[in-house]
Amino acid sequence: MKYTNKKSGFTLLEILIYVAIFVMLAGVVITSFTIVVGTFSNSQTNRDLQESGSTAMERMAREIRQASGVNVSNSVFSVTPGTLELDSTDGSGTARTVKFVYENNAIDMYYGGVLQGNLLGQNIVPTSLFFRNITTTSGSAIKIEMTIKDNKGKDHRTANYYDTIILRSAY
């Protein structure tokens, strides 16, 4: 009978090669995962800014269009923080005021002096809000310039919004 001396197992060199390959693959996977998470976070920040800014601008534009006039004495134009007070009516025709105020890191809306709430979403804060009153012989309009910032991310992205709204009572 022949006796053979077979050793089973791996050599030290084989184990080092396997570990090196595993470390490289793990590095690629972890880097890919980090990139995906970062991209998702950036997309979510951009979506939050876009959604909050658009919603706030649409709400202010709707109220300005429906207003019968601008209360110039209670409004603050061309400076930040801006304030805009509008003379308006509710659905039953009762007179009321609508006011937009930049205060306490929020853009607050008031109906008849009662706070309705912040127009911006959670973790979104304004950095500037300008109202400009435009009056001509044929009517009047309000120009809005708003800059908002995302407060939850580490890079604090900002977005600018601009709109000019003609009061319907002016035409």
Strand content: 35-45%
Ends: how far apart?
A: 113 Å
- What is the H/E order? HEEEEEEEE
State the helicity in percent bands: 25-40%
State the secondary-structure class.
alpha+beta
- Average pLDDT score: 89
Largest pleated sheet:
5 strands, antiparallel
| Tertiary shape | rod-shaped
**Number of discrete helical segments:** 1
Cα-atom Rg, whole angstroms?
A: 30 Å
According to DSSP, the number of beta strands is: 8
Main β-sheet, spatial strand arrangement: 1-2-3-4-5
Count of domain modules: 1
Textual characterization of the structure:
The protein has one helix and eight strands; from the N terminus they run H-E-E-E-E-E-E-E-E. The protein has one helix at residues 12-66, and strands at 69-70, 83-89, 95-103, 106-111, 114-118, 124-136, 139-150, 158-166. The strands form two sheets. The chain has a five-stranded antiparallel sheet with strand order 1-2-3-4-5, covered by helices on one side. Strands 6-7-8 form a three-stranded antiparallel sheet, with helices on one face. Strand 3 and strand 4 form a beta hairpin. The termini are far apart.
Quickly list its features:
171 residues; alpha+beta; 5-stranded antiparallel beta sheet; 1 helix; rod-shaped
Lay out the secondary structure.
Blueprint lengths: L11 H55 L2 E2 L12 E7 L5 E9 L2 E6 L2 E5 L5 E13 L2 E12 L7 E9 L5
Antiparallel strand pairs: 1-2, 2-3, 3-4, 4-5, 6-7, 7-8
Kindly summarize this structure in a few lines.
With 171 residues, this protein is an alpha+beta fold. The chain has one helix and eight strands.
